[in-house]
Amino acid sequence: MAELVIAGAGPQALSLACLLLQKRPRWRQRLRILDPSGGWMNRWHRQMQRLEIACLRSPSPHHPHPNPDALRRFAQQRQRSRELEEPYGLPHTALFGAFCHTVVEDFQLAGQVQPVSVEEIHLDADRRPGSLRLGLSDGSRIQARRLVIATGPGEPALPTWVQRITGAYPAEALQHSHAIDLAACRGLQGQHILLVGGGLTSAHLALGAIRRGARVSLLCRGELRSKLFDADPGWLGPKHLKAFRLEPCWQRRRQQVLEARGGGSITPQLAMALRQERERGRLQIHEHCEVREARWCGRQWALDCSDGSRLEVNRIWLATGHRLGVSHQLLLRQLHRQRPIELVEDWPVLRGDLRWPGTNVHLMGGLAALQLGPAARNLFGGREAAQRISRAAIKA
Ligand SMILES: Cc1cc2nc3c(=O)[nH]c(=O)nc-3n(C[C@H](O)[C@H](O)[C@H](O)COP(=O)(O)OP(=O)(O)OC[C@H]3O[C@@H](n4cnc5c(N)ncnc54)[C@H](O)[C@@H]3O)c2cc1C
Ligand SMILES: NC(=O)c1ccc[n+]([C@@H]2O[C@H](COP(=O)([O-])OP(=O)(O)OC[C@H]3O[C@@H](n4cnc5c(N)ncnc54)[C@H](OP(=O)(O)O)[C@@H]3O)[C@@H](O)[C@H]2O)c1
Description:
The protein is α/β, with parallel strands linked by helices. It is built from 12 helices and 19 strands. It has helices spanning 11-23, 42-50, 70-77, 93-106, 160-163, 200-211, 238-246, 250-261, 268-279, 330-338, 369-372, 379-395; strands at 2-7, 31-34, 84-85, 90-91, 113-114, 118-123, 132-136, 141-149, 174-176, 192-196, 215-219, 283-286, 291-296, 301-305, 310-313, 315-318, 343-344, 347-348, 361-363.
């Protein structure tokens, strides 16, 4: 029986694996990490590459190594400090990638990721209390004493008008950002692309399409907001988190998380790049505007929008993020059927150690937000979650 199984090998899972091994080196034998990609942080590296992102949004202390200073030290030792954009030390993507590679090597975690996904969870009450039976994508089953679900953001969010489209259209005519690889997009020159969403993914895709000769219309259902980080930096320390953790009402905590993020936002740097493209006539920004109806007319889309305008575009790219909720994740739906818990509008009320109450299953990522606050899904959240879960695992 594996003592601890981690489903997922993204940055959040790596934060936990490193912290556990730092605290208890002998746990190496008891740890099993499963991810269909078969390696560490493959989805992360791919998403940065697909969207051609040169620099992270989060500051230098946010990364998977247990020591927050480790990235800055790594950069100094290799004379790469210029790749930390001051004043916050935002790491360049290449530096961050090289650093994480070294972290994996230093903790001897290379080659430790088994290329399978967890597809079934069974709470195995007949055996040791709390033990679990997991069904894997290769058809095998394993027993685990404890499971950590660190499988990332869940299902892509698709606007309701997408489900109302009737008739066939080419796959590349309508795509969600998770499936778009800018370098692999052919024939963008001269095309008109509709980008839906006011987050940073939307901005990167808009600029990537424009670099390839496309004209872009960017549709935001609210305002296009410019902020350095997803939420005020006060949410990365006691300034806001102290009061948040004392808030007894889960509904109010959810509201605070939503208000702190305030929906999607873009950095001032990308806001400026978008403004320049708008001035050059290659970008139109429609705020407070949503698509009402989309029809594929053989070569292009005809779109009716909520502000009464009509648009004709060749492709639609949805940069609408992901659906955060128990009902949008297969493993969590299974868990909830077997051990129902309190949900606040589909967000789970977890214990302080991020455990699904009554089980030995812990969650990392955005669904830990009622405990961790608005940065739960970011690298910062991974560090916080790793501390709470490792403490619980070691104590048990
Ligand atoms: C383009 C982009 C840029 C971002 N930049 C930043 C940034 O600069 N700073 C920041 O703090 N945050 C950033 N984020 C948020 C970011 O997603 C997270 O910080 C980070 O990727 C979350 O890590 P994770 O380990 O939770 O998820 P992921 O990186 O998504 O990793 C989850 C892993 O789980 C695996 N998996 C899925 N299902 C299963 C299963 N059933 N069984 C086993 N394995 C499974 C997947 O294959 C994947 O490898 C960015 C997000 C995007 C989309
Ligand atoms: N390092 C980087 O450079 C980088 C790059 C990309 C992303 N990121 C990070 O990754 C995370 C995710 O970013 P993201 O941009 O992918 O997602 P996001 O921040 O969740 O933004 C999604 C956007 O889509 C909009 N949206 C959602 N559903 C919609 C619908 N049905 N109709 C119309 N609009 C809809 C949202 O509108 P509302 O605003 O109204 O909610 C929001 O503007 C963030 O933490 C971000 O900072 C970082």
